Amino acid sequence: MDYLDLPQRTSGERTYGLTSIIDLGTSIGELTHILEDYSSFIDIAKIGIGSAYVTPILQKKIDLYKQFGIKPYCGGTLFEKCYYQNKLPQYLRSLTDLGIEWVEVSNGTIDIPLHERLKLISEIKQDFHVIAEVGSKDSGDNLTVFEWVNEMKQLLDAGSEYVITEGRDSGTSGIYEDNGQIKSNLIHQLVEEVDYMKIIFEAPTPKQQMYFINLLGANVNVGNVKISEVLVLETQRCGLRSETFFVEEQGCKLPL
What we know:
Strand order of the largest sheet: 3-2-1-8-7-6-5-4
CATH superfamily: Aldolase class I
EC number: 4.4.1.19
Order of helices and strands: EHEHEHHEHEHEHEHEH
Keywords: Lyase
Helix content: 25-40%
Organism: Bacillus benzoevorans
Structural class: alpha/beta
Enzyme class: lyase
Oligomer: single chain
InterPro entries: Aldolase_TIM, ComA_synth, ComA_synth_sf
């Protein structure tokens, strides 16, 4: 069908308007069926938490994502585990062997000082594309707005191609209160200070996704999307859900 006037979506190998899904154990058979139908809606696939380390036939899963033009990478928890155990060289070599070209640098579980993360990014970017995450998985560990903005800017300047706002797969930390409420004042400040096309907002629930679509438009970057809900998200982006009925390509940038 092609007769409605809808927000113009980016397509092909997108640089913004990204949908990043979280894979927490999708079987190869199920994944194959999903990608056959919906791969055009997915840009990035995070093998969530540290599950890549124990995923059976991981190579087959990585190859399948790449076959459909989707960029796979491992969750930041695995990066942090390797950093904590001084195993980052082995970790990076294993990514190369798997054909993974993207690395997440995060500090959601352990405190890796900003200067250390910047140093790591400057080194890792020589061989990989880097995504850096800002924020903690501990809902009681709150950065100030200045710290959020400062970290994002420095991480991008160091060579990160995107910065991710921590939200967990539950949407209860980082840019969210522990009850899932969005920290709207923080979000508005971030998009005023940082190029939001370089921010991937973790938004695991439809309610959270709709907030960002209404605020920033159909082509906002959204992460931690459940793989079973990519069609719902694309429907929301196109203004085909009541809550996003009046969405525009660029969004309204007004308080919601």
